[in-house]
Amino acid sequence: MKRIVPGLFIAGFWLLLLLKGSILLFCLAIILIVLVAAAEYVKMVDVRPTSLLERWLLHVAVAAPVIVTCLYPYADALLGATLGSFLLLTGYFLYRYKNIDQSYDLFCRLVFGILYVGVLGAHLVLLRFMPEGGSWLVIASAITACSDTGAYFVGRSLGKRKLCPSISPNKTVEGAIGGVLCGLVGALFFAALLLPACNWFFLTGAAVFLAGAGIVGDLTESIIKRGTDTKDSGSCLAGHGGVLDRVDSLLFVCPILYYLLAFPVL
Predict the structure, then answer these.
(1) Of the candidates 109, 96, 98, which has an alpha carbon nearest to the alpha carbon of residue 38?
(2) Taking 50 as the threshold, does the pLDDT of residue 266 lie above it?
(3) Looking at 94-98, 194-198, 235-239, which range is the least confident one?
(4) Angstrom distances, CA of residue 63 to CA of 127, 131, 167
(5) What is the rounded average pLDDT for all residues in the chain?
(6) 149/107 Cα distance (integer angstroms)
(7) Contact (CB, 8 A) for 113 and 42
(8) Helices (DSSP H) in the chain: which residue ranges?
(9) Which domain covers residue 140, as residue numbers?
(10) Shortest CA distance to 170 belongs to which of 151, 184, 183?
């Protein structure tokens, strides 16, 4: 019950935001969500005692690609924002270099954070600004949520072969297959409700591929948490951990879906 009630609330808020909320409201919500995700990431990789100003500067550097993309929702703006984040982070390290132990290790971790949280997260905004973008985001969310749920229950009941035991010991091959199939069902169900005129052949193939990408996204966050000796990225979502724990799969699914829609010839 501790997970079900918050989960229903989160799902309801997200659906209302995508289907009924304005793009302005979506951008404000995404900026807040990504700033929290950036704070969680920075907290995991940087354990130094720092001032509030320094900590916020790092949060903004990681989240800047999303913030800029909300203001200028174009792929070209994302490229410039990424460069700006990198230069901001570089300037910070040049200024604080002598006070940072293992500076190169921390620098690489934070640069990865820009790519992981900022650049991948910005594609949620780019996807929302596409035609029927809200509906496609619902479908992407359904793929990740159904895949995660299916993988959990199928893995518990049928799982025998470990998928990546050194990264996530509880994940199984059987669970991953069940997750992909459940992700496909979720995509087809919401597409029938929201986009009945879509290309069903494209959607079926894309949903299977995206469900697999979501599993990779989940495993990627597991690598980060293992490398930083962290159980959950945060605790702001009650029994669901932190924001990164909830969007890790979506961070991989949305960029891929965006480019599949932007360049359909692929």
Answers:
(1) 109
(2) no
(3) 235-239
(4) 17, 25, 26
(5) 89
(6) 35
(7) yes
(8) 4-19, 23-45, 52-71, 75-96, 103-113, 120-128, 133-158, 173-194, 200-227, 243-247, 250-262
(9) 4-262
(10) 151
Distance CA 252, CA 142 (A): 14
Q: What is the pTM of this model?
A: 0.91
CA distances from 222 to 109, 166, 258 (A): 15, 10, 24
Amino acid found at 155? G
pLDDT tops 50 at residue 169: yes
Rounded Cα–Cα distance for residues 114 and 95 (Å):
19
Residue 49's SS3 state is coil
CA distances from 150 to 67, 171, 184 (A): 33, 12, 11
Has residue 49 got a pLDDT over 90? no
CA 173 to chain centre: 22
Residues facing 162 on adjacent strands? 172
Match 């929302």 to its residue by tokens: 128
Per-position DSSP letters for 97-122, written without gaps between them: GGG-TTHHHHHHHHHHHIIIIIIHHH
Q: SS3 of 11, please? A: helix
Residue type, 148: D
2 pLDDT higher than 90: no
How far apart CA 103 and CA 189 sit, in angstroms, is 49
Residues 6+ positions from 252 with CB-CB distance below 8 Å: 120, 213, 214, 216, 217, 220
* Domains of the chain: total: 1
> What six digits make up the tokens of 100?
């940072």
Is residue 35 within 8 A of residue 151, CB to CB? The reply is no
| pLDDT of amino acid 265 | 55
